[in-house]
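Justification of computing resources. Each target in the renewal requires a structure prediction run like the one illustrated here; the chain below, 352 residues long, is used simply to show the kind of job we budget for.
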Amino acid sequence: MRAVVMRAFGEPDVLRVEKVPRPSPRPGEALVQVAAVEVSRTRDIATRTGTHPFSKKIAFPHVLGGDFTGVVEDVGAGVDRALVGQRVAVRSTRNCRECPACRAGRQHQCTDIQMLGIELWGSYAEFVCAPAYNLYPLPDKIDMAEAAALAATGPVALAQLRAAAVDHNSTVLITGITGALGTTVAALASKLSARVLGLTRRPQAVLPALNVTALDMARDDLAQALLETTYGMGVTTVIDNVADAATFDRYFPALARGARIVISGAISSAQPPILRVPADILYLRSIALLGVRTACTSIVQEFWNLVGEHDFRLPQGVVHEAPLEAVAHVHADMTAGRIAGHVVLRVSEVGR
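Resulting structure tokens:
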């Protein structure tokens, strides 16, 4: 089968399509023919450079790629053969299912998480084996490329919004609004009838379809601008997927009483940021600071229910598609900031 193999850290040209043996499903697993996989800035691009904390877990040769979509080709012992032929989204994280957190239903706090594309060979490949419990059937009417974009970002976006208790009364501020996760958080927050504000260095790149009020994250008067935009009420929720210390300092004074800040993406660089949190203000204004690493199984299922039963979709124009063979060019374009939103590699035409 074809797979994008990297044999060393480096620039995008270390990614090369090669022929590798096709895997066979073990007991409890399914073999899935990959249709599409999203290119992640952190999991894929930063890891490829060798400078990311994830890079320390890589053993060469290696295949990148996390959550993906495809069609079940075969199953191992103990797995219902009725899965064969089904269109599915596949979650990239494997939990130990034995630690206290897993047994309590808090799989996102598992002490021994393994991820496709990091500890395990990933989904920049034609076939991938995954535990059957990581498969989520897809509705027939959703395109496999869009579903791959949703698989990569939807569950964690919903986990962030649930942790922040977002509802129709919320004003949600999203950092990195032009990124893949930022666009999904924005679309989901709008689905929950919240008002959405976005921070970016490129306000002009925010698609009108997102229905977001975008501000330049670098402006010195950011707090005042946020207060004016919210008519003096302040921001009730921050979904911070950048965790940039200077930006945090700028938006923090604009938080409303009882605001919740959800931090993800704090390991997006080799040097994790240090946020200067004024503890007295947290206390006096009842502000909560929360960390969300990933989504638990119940949130993942809730998300796919939103897709299947409530027709949640990404706004038109935020998902960009490229063939598997263009992976090095995609990594280069994303690194240079030439692409906003989601970029999905089309691995095969299966499931069309």
